[in-house]
Amino acid sequence: MDSHSQTVSHPKADSRIQISLRTVLNIYGIFLFLGLLISIYTHEIKGIEGFLLFILISSILYFLLLNLHFKSELGRNIVFIALCLIAVSSLIMVFYLQV
Question: Could you report the per-residue pLDDT of 57-86, keeping only the tens digit for each?
């Protein structure tokens, strides 16, 4: 037996793929909205035009805010303000639509 043998490490085996949070959230968004589109065919949804309009607007808003968040510090502030406005308007709609 050779006591001077060395193990060979392959550089490809040691390297790991680095995936950013931006990429993960973009992929998540793609699967999310594709799942919503597929749900049209798996469930009997009435008023399909309204549902498609909701998917279109929410997907544009999601990807716009997501990519704006990762652009700059100003983009992060704009996204924070937009999310606060969405939260406040959602709370107002809960009480408005309850009447």
Answer: 999 999 999 999 999 999 999 999 999 999
